[in-house]
């Protein structure tokens, strides 16, 4: 659906769309990136034209690069588009490969990562032993997440589930007003409006009261929602603000490896996470794509410690300023709370050697015995994830997936629908959220285990983005999520085999884009 110049509120009132910002800094960064890419390719083409023997060097390089791609540790779905690029575009393809394939990080970031791994904030041996008494299966899942994401298992934590973003602002602002020591804010997208503006006023008041306020937003995520120098304005108010991976106009992966994380932490006592960004559309103040259904989770207790560490690591990567979790304790515990929790991060190599979130979701699907319920705004998955969902359904597990009915990105929505037929044939139940767009990222199974956070079922989220999630076992929140899922399903459209009609041209376009989906 194309964005309109005005929004209609639930009461029928029409309001103007929030102002879009395209700052000169962003424009310059895009221009420089394109210029460097084209210039590099042009130099090679000119060199080959004037020096004939370089054409044989180029053919040899094409062969070597193809062999190198095949032998990398990357997912086969990720290798295929790179092979197509290198083989179909001999000169340009090789240059694009050398400019954009590598994810080598600057030395100062590698040093900060080494310091981050030394931030050992917990010995979870006792928690692991207690979980082993409950379930060896879930102990194995917990161990794998902790090892792959360098995280820890926690108890003494309670979690509250908000079924809509609309329900969050009042509690969030109450917690912010109660802050006495520090506030950490970390979001993919921030936009001036009814949601962010009151929060900003509280942050400014807290700075004046001596509370330490630190804030991270993604530079690309806020490309159209904030001025390019917004972080400087925030610093002028005393807020320690920094854009994540600030665009510098360099031909590499800086546009692709973004931070999609969403966290708000107060005094190490409470933390919020989930799908909601600090924009009005997420709380249905401006309806662009029908009713926006999202989810938020408020965590109170010991597990907040891990989210503090995650924030401080990313803040250190962005600012080159070393901050240690022990300086932000003590952390509150809720001794009577039930359940086990692992807040964990995931992201691209080499920051994360394994795709922890993808592995956690796969484990949940593969080990499910009765049901797996999933809500995701995007369903653009690789062969491994597809087979896991199919195999679960074939062995008798009730697999249900809810996706949007009104898309925010037409091409991605078309790609999502292209997976329906194959999954439905194997017994997976697909539903579309008829009132509008569902942005919640929920994964629950067997009334026992779940994963909540920022991770979508698409390549960008599972491979490219920095994400954060919470794995939990035997927590009361799971029943609230399940009940909300079942109520949501009642207002969804059930997709049956043959429901989605496809023309030959549409199938061709989908087939082409599916080749390059892992790079998007």
Structural overview:
The chain has 18 helices and 21 strands. The chain folds into 3 domains: 24-100, no CATH class; 107-142 and 152-339, Endonuclease, Chain A, CATH 3.30.870.10; 356-519, 2-Layer Sandwich (Endonuclease, Chain A). The longest helix has 27 residues, at 24-50. The protein is 42% helix and 19% strand. Strands 11-20-18-17-12-14-15-21 form an 8-stranded mixed β-sheet, with helices on both faces. Strands 3-10-8-7-4-5-6 form a 7-stranded mixed β-sheet, with helices on both faces.
Assign the structural class, choosing from mainly alpha, mainly beta, alpha/beta, alpha+beta, or little secondary structure. Answer: alpha/beta
Mean pLDDT: 86
Helix content: 40-55%
Judging by the overall fold, what is the CATH architecture of the largest domain?
A: 2-Layer Sandwich
CATH topology assignment of the largest domain:
Endonuclease, Chain A
Count up the helices: 18
Estimate nothing, just give the exact number of structural domains. Answer: 3
Cα radius of gyration in angstroms? 23 Å
CATH class group of the largest domain? Alpha Beta
Cross-sheet strand order for the largest sheet: 11-20-18-17-12-14-15-21
Q: Please report the total strand number as a whole number.
A: 21
What is the 3D form?
globular
- Sheet-strand content, in percent, reads 15-25%
Name the CATH superfamily assignment of the largest domain. Answer: Endonuclease Chain A
**Poorly predicted spans:** 1-11
Distance from first to last alpha carbon: 20 Å
Query: The biggest beta sheet, please?
Result: 8 strands, mixed
